[in-house]
Amino acid sequence: MSFPFYDDPSAGYPPDAYHGDGGETSAWIRPADAPKEIEYAAGGSCEYLLTGPQSGGKLGVYKWSFGEAESGPDPHFHRSIAELFYVLEGEVRLYDGRGWQEAGAGDFLYVPEGGLHGFRGGNRASMLLMFTPGAPREDYFETLASLGRGATMSPEERVAFMLRHDTYWVDED
Q1: Which domains does the chain have, with CATH numbers?
Q2: Which segments of the protein form a coiled coil according to its record (predicted)?
């Protein structure tokens, strides 16, 4: 997704999205002790902090917590969404298209549409995953969790699943 008004730094802010006069009561909070939406068989979890539908399709934010053993996707890219990673705790390896980089708490990686990326972590590390625009990633995360618990998918179903979720795998160079 490109934002032409950002190509010119003098353009300022994006166009108004809210046109009321006095603001509105529309904020909401997700308590820290809210249940995790997904618990993975390998011990990790995914918490839905803000889904695409909740943000009107603008943004998706998820807290990804790794289990003890290392896990995470190999290099891939998305055609329609940008992805952002912010490491909260522990060490995470992030693939930036050139190679695997060690990242720790406070490190951030931005991946524009088409950017090669991947991530791997373990030892209970955690990070924020953010997508813009807010694609419906929940089915992707939930299906991966079910596969980890023994569900199966034929090679043809897997290809269709990945394409439906804008995920294109590449070989590491």
Answers
A1: 39-169 (2.60.120.10)
A2: none
pLDDT digits (tens, 9 = 90+) for 120-172: 999 999 999 999 999 989 999 999 999 989 999 999 999 999 999 999 999 87
| Distance separating alpha carbons of residues 115 and 173, to the nearest angstrom | 15
DSSP string, 130-143: EEES---THHHHHH
User: Do residues 40 and 145 lie in contact, with contact meaning Cβ atoms separated by under 8 Å?
Assistant: yes
C-alpha to C-alpha distance for 55 and 61, rounded to whole angstroms: 10
CA distances from 21 to 18, 27, 49, 55 (A): 9, 17, 29, 21
Residue 72's region, left for phi above 0, alpha for psi from -120 to 50, else beta, is left
